[in-house]
């Protein structure tokens, strides 16, 4: 041992272990590892050399118990004392440290652990004399980060003391990119959220209590009375999976699987179930009010039709749309015939023609309404709305895209004097709206798969439909007979639906064109009346369809960008 070691520590040559440690601590305040790594390396080497000179036990290889078993170190030859008795060899600090690590890891492998025992074993590892060695200290930090990250939630009690000891979560670049440390920090944030929802009266406390207990069946009576927090459970599971994924292990796995299966099955919601339960008394009250109440009060009983109407809409949504979609997804993922995947496209065009030319009657209206429900259910089950990212949510884009056609139909419907014609065309237009909203994306993907001549041929077909609709519109504009209007509606809606698969290629500017043109339509309505709005609105819809088709066909066929 040279004098430079003691000069680096700033003390005289000594065999006092405590004095060497105190000298090292004093010099460490002036030598920052991040600002002066070379100086810190020299200081640490001098410190270890001084310790080796005071307490030299020979070389030993330290290996972590999680990687492989420690290598056997040959025991030193016993040294005979003055009285002739052999003294036992001194203990190896590295081997002692490895045993403490193995004990802590074995504790965290158990299903049920005592937090106090685990914390005491963790403190024993940190208090080991081998932690004064640089290589042991760094390797132990790596091992503890791996152990805590992979033994959650049993290792949660070690997160706070480990962060305090090693400074995890600081500005060190190594810790920012260290995957186990980042997992530990994320787990600590999730535990803070868990502590909040465990409090009585917290926002998600009721749902948390359900998800941490064994699964229980959800009865219709419980849903009707609101005893099962189904909406709150759905919201909490979404929050945990999106923002706090490590907390899934803190919930009852069987209960989570039970609620996932419950939410995946189409069923009436709470208010739909309540409306269905209220339908019989509401219909009875409607009949009794019509027969028993005075005429001026009997009109108010019409309000009792609201719960049955809501129940009917809920039943159609569940069994007409959600259930077919679930059955389709379970039966076909890939390889379904083309007519099943896209058959609702030509079907809705045929339905428009049938609704326009069929004589108006109760039987015809019922048949067209049933066909409209089938086509709408078919499109919603096999189609897919355009959910691509944009400046506005896709739901709002869908509403805006379909609002023009529906608004024009409502204005046109006021010119229809025949009730049954109004009902059957209304059913067809609702089906057309569903097909337009849920059929854009799959038909657009199909259009992209066509060769260039196929795209040009489709564009020519749309323009031909626009020309035919313009001819029908011109004839109806000069004929005051309202019998023409169902044919006008079918002739205008057909090319509008045919050009919708091309709209994802146009971008956001198509919405601006529609909004600007709507200003002119409002002006026509204010100065010319409702009949002028019907003609002007139909002309605008045909103009949009023609312009969009030309631009999208040219861009999709000849553009290389």
Which key features would you list for this structure?
5 domains, elongated, 561 residues, 69% helix, mainly alpha, 26 helices
Characterization of this structure:
This protein has helices at residues 3-9, 17-30, 37-54, 93-108, 115-126, 134-150, 159-166, 173-176, 179-197, 205-211, 220-225, 230-243, 253-264, 270-292, 295-298, 306-331, 338-342, 344-357, 362-382, 394-413, 419-438, 440-448, 452-477, 485-499, 509-528, 530-558; strands spanning 79-80, 86-87. By secondary structure, it is mostly helical. Strand 1 and strand 2 (86-87) form a beta hairpin. The radius of gyration is 39 Å and the shape is elongated. The relative contact order is 0.04. Mean pLDDT is 79; it is low at 54-73.
Shape: elongated
What profile does the largest beta sheet have?
2 strands, antiparallel
Strand order of the largest sheet: 1-2
How far do the termini sit from each other? 73 Å
The whole-number mean of residue pLDDT values reads 79
Rg: 39 Å
Number of strands: 2
Element-level helix/strand string: HHHEEHHHHHHHHHHHHHHHHHHHHHHH
Helix content: 55-70%
- The total domain count is 5
Based on secondary structure, the structural category is mainly alpha
Which spans of ≥5 residues are poorly predicted at pLDDT below 50? 54-73
Strand content: under 5%
| Number of helices in the DSSP assignment | 26
